[in-house]
Amino acid sequence: MTLYARRASLSRRPALIEAAMRLSRHSEYAFRMLIHVGLRAPLLTTIAEIASDFDLSAAHLNKVAQTLAAHGYLQTVRGRSGGLRLARDPASIRLGQVATVTEPDFQIAPCMSPGSEYCPIYEPCVLRDALSHAANAFIAELDRWTLADLIKKRAPLLLRLSSAGLATSRDGRSGAHG
User: Fold this and answer.
1) Each residue's pLDDT tens digit, 111-167
2) Which of 15, 38, 59, 144 is 20 to 30 Å from the Cα of 46, by its Cα?
3) Which residues sit opposite 74 in a β-bridge?
4) How far apart are CA 96 and CA 156, in angstroms?
């Protein structure tokens, strides 16, 4: 088989590995939500504000907020003046820990799942070990970062959020200061 024919045959295979390397939308939204809530602290932030600022689905954000609240990252305040606030100090929120909450079955490739019927060499496969080590290294790298690291540049980040102006109307101070 020529190199060209081999490349062509590889490109017709399903893109399982490519899709598996991405974090889920749930994780991405969780990180964005934590950034938004962290930037707006100590003010409450609403799902509607986060949805508007990041152009995300409010329905999906509600599920993300439930996950983050259930694991002690966010506090939810009900009522007309309710919203979300951080339940922990931003410096104690490690991204790897958040990812393990939002990606409970994190696998780099579909064949890594125990009992996977996708791969006929699952049991003796050494690739699974290599991918498992890579996944652990990925989470370890995320754990080097905290929410505090992500929101250090508070003013420029707040300027990019369209609801930042709401901070002034809620507590009488500009939302871009911090």
Assistant:
1) 777 665 667 887 788 988 898 899 899 999 999 999 999 999 988 898 888 765 454
2) 144
3) 86
4) 25
